[in-house]
Amino acid sequence: MNRRTFLSTTSAGIAAFATTSGLWRCHNEFSRSRTYPFRPYRPGKTLGEIWQVTPSDGFYTNTYYDVCPWSPSGRYLAVTRLPYQDKITVMGDIADVCI
Predict the structure, then answer these.
(1) Rounded Cα distance, 93 and 85, in Å
(2) Which of 18, 28, 67, 78 could be cross-linked to 23 through a Cys-Cys bond (beta carbons 3.0 to 4.6 Å apart)?
(3) Could you tell me how far CA 67 lies from the centroid of its own chain?
């Protein structure tokens, strides 16, 4: 099979052509990197020590499907920031993954 036949007749060829020609171009605008200091949450008002690890700029959830949100080294925490809290998420909703 020659290249022209491969690109025009197979699904892999069509996808390869569309990707390399820029037809399927994805542009990701990653947010700027910022740090957030961990701080005590309501110090002196709880029985145990609780630390706030996310800023107050959104609604965060830590994990899905029993996956540990901490990296193997314990240095990073993966959280999902949702734009709302008053409804159930559905497929197609936009969320940010924060590390």
Answers:
(1) 12
(2) 18
(3) 14
The residue written with tokens 């080294």 in the block is 73
pLDDT tens digit sequence for 42-73: 888 989 998 888 888 888 888 777 888 888 89
C-beta separation of 79 from 98 below 8 A: yes
Task: Please tell me the predicted confidence (pLDDT) of residue 4.
Answer: 63
d(CA 63, CA 99): 12
First to last CA, the chain: 46
The Cα 69–Cα 58 span in angstroms is 18
Distances in whole angstroms, Cα of residue 85 to Cα of each of 42, 92, 97: 22, 16, 16
Q: Does the structure show a pLDDT above 60 at 17?
A: no
